[in-house]
Design a protein that fits this description.
This protein is mainly α and about 240 residues long. About 70% of the residues lie in helices and about 5% in strands. It contains 7 helices and 2 strands. β1 (about 15-20) and β2 (about 20-25) form a beta hairpin. The longest helix has about 45 residues, at about 190-235.
């Protein structure tokens, strides 16, 4: 089994299996692994969920995570967090688990691949207008792109594209650079210092998951609130 080396920038370059045009890369394999862990973990934690005072530790942990995500969403959107919890929560858990599993030897985070971060950013790109249209209607949402005049339409579209690109590149750059720095330290320094850096990297990975989810929520909130503010002023 191949492990990401110093001359390999992306886990896309690590191929576990190739059959014709079908390639199973580290990015694909570990993405499937993370999805499997999230699905199985969700089922195991919620299969015996209880509303009583006596709950399991896993349910307590789940409630803390969900409550924290809900509070953050409500603080940003000033709206019912239930509308956005599934999407934003999934983004946070996927990116966070991807980064936390770096503690496992031989594991390569899918978030250190630009294909993964671009896919996540594209999900946000489509989620923004979907939430905006759902809350405001398609005519009101599209009208915003022509404000204050129709000349600004291409600039609004360009802004949507560039912030999606920035979202993908930011996460990719941080995670890819972390992997490379750890690999270099393991090659040239004693054991203790890389371990400290690795622990710090896990914290950075959680911070990156938080930032990605928060930015996604900010973009969605801006799409759903812009028209509400204008309607309020008009009234």
């Amino acid at each position: 089994m191949e492990i990401l080396s110093l001359n390999q920038i992306s886990p896309d370059q690590v191929v576990f299996l190739q059959w014709g045009i079908i390639r199973i890369t580290a990015t694909l394999l570990y993405t499937w692994l993370i999805m499997a862990i999230l699905i199985l973990g969700s089922w195991l934690v919620t299969r015996n969920i209880s509303s009583s005072l006596h709950t399991t530790r896993w349910q307590n942990l789940l409630e803390v995570v969900v409550s924290t995500i809900r509070d953050q969403i409500k603080e940003i959107s000033h709206d019912d967090p239930g509308h956005y919890l599934s999407f934003i929560g999934t983004l946070f858990l996927f990116v966070g688990l991807s980064n936390l599993l770096l503690i496992v030897p031989g594991y390569v985070a899918p978030t250190s691949s630009l294909t993964t971060t671009a896919a996540l950013a594209i999900c946000v790109f489509f989620a923004v207008p979907l939430y905006g249209i759902t809350r405001q209607g398609i005519l009101h949402y599209v009208k915003e792109y022509f404000q204050p005049t129709f000349i600004f339409f291409p600039f609004h579209v360009m802004g949507e594209v560039t912030r999606t690109l920035a979202l993908a590149v930011r996460l990719f750059g941080n995670m890819m650079s972390h992997d490379k720095v750890i690999a270099i330290l393991l090659a040239v320094t004693p054991l203790f210092f890389p371990i400290v850096m690795h622990a710090l990297g896990l914290l950075i990975g959680l911070v990156q998951a938080y930032i990605f989810a928060i930015l996604a929520m900010v973009y969605i909130a801006s799409a759903t609130q812009a028209h509400e503010e204008k309607d309020g002023k008009g009234n």
